């Protein structure tokens, strides 16, 4: 949030309630909250899909061996499981970024402690490492 937005927020908040002690969400906090919501919804939706496939398979509604429509339920389960793993990893990353924000360490690389570039934080608000450190660890895609 820019300082101008923050002023506007305080003004509108003050007008509504007359209370000024509530701090506005700072930029990264609201962005991380938004990302957390998106990730949580994605996990819920993927979990539902996974359960649907399992239920359908148990009901005999789909047939692994003879489904002419293509993918087997086992394959679909694997795909959704992989997406769920990625979504959970994303959520964990967001939680880590929120923890660092609470500690006042947000925007600082968790590995080398140098400042993470503003452009990188804009693109990846949940990242906890600078570009160089993230690139050095090819297992993580941020
Ligand atoms: Zn670093």
How does this model look, in words?
The protein has 142 residues and is mainly α. The chain has two domains: 3-106; 107-142, no CATH class. The chain has five helices and no strands. Helix 2 (27-59) packs antiparallel against helix 3. Bound molecules: zinc ion. Zinc ion binds at residues 109, 111-112, 114, 129-130, 132-133. The site of zinc ion (ZN) has 8 residues, from helix 5.
The biggest beta sheet is recorded as:
none
Q: What is the averaged pLDDT score?
A: 82
Radius of gyration: 21 Å
Distance between the termini: 23 Å
Q: What is the overall number of helices?
A: 5
Task: Tell me the overall shape.
Answer: elongated
Strand elements, count: 0
Count of separate structural domains? 2
Question: In short, what is this structure?
Answer:
It contains five helices and no strands. With 142 residues, the protein is mainly α. Bound molecules: zinc ion.
Which terms summarize this structure?
single chain, 142 residues, mainly alpha, 0% strand, binds zinc ion
């Amino acid at each position: 949030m820019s300082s101008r937005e923050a002023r506007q927020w305080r003004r509108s908040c003050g007008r509504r309630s007359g209370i000024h002690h509530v701090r506005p969400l700072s930029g990264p906090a609201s962005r991380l909250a938004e990302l957390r919501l998106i990730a949580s919804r994605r996990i819920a939706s993927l979990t539902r899909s996974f359960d649907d496939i399992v239920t359908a398979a148990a009901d005999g509604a789909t047939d692994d061996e003879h489904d002419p429509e293509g993918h087997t339920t086992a394959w679909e389960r694997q795909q959704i499981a992989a997406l769920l793993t990625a979504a959970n990893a994303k959520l964990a990353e967001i939680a880590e970024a929120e923890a660092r924000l609470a500690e006042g360490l947000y925007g600082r690389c968790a590995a080398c402690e140098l400042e993470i570039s503003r452009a990188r934080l804009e693109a990846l608000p949940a990242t906890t490492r600078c570009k160089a450190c993230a690139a050095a660890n090819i297992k993580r895609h941020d």
